[in-house]
Design a protein that fits this description.
The protein has 65 residues and is mainly α. The chain is built from three helices and no strands. The chain has one domain.
Length: 65
C-alpha cells in the first residue's frame, strides 16, 4: 500500500496534522538552505576583507573590444 493510500485512510484531522508536518519539514529545509547561503556569502565577504580573495570587475572581464 502506498503512502498516499495510507494517508487517505486517515481521519481528516490526522490528514491535516500529517500535511502540516510535511509542510513544516519543507520550511525547515528551505531555512537550512538559506542559512547555508548566508553563511557562504559572509565567508566570501570576510575572505575579501582579509585580502585572501579579490573581486573581479564584471564589465572589464566581459567588455567587448
Amino acid at each position: 500500500m502506498s503512502l498516499l493510500e495510507q494517508a487517505i485512510k486517515k481521519t481528516p484531522q490526522e490528514r491535516v496534522i500529517l500535511a502540516e508536518m510535511i509542510l513544516a519539514s519543507i520550511d525547515y529545509e528551505v531555512d537550512e538552505i538559506n542559512k547555508a547561503w548566508v553563511d557562504e556569502v559572509q565567508n566570501r565577504i570576510q575572505s575579501v576583507a582579509d585580502g585572501q580573495s579579490e573581486l573581479l570587475d564584471f564589465n572589464k572581464l566581459y567588455a567587448q573590444d
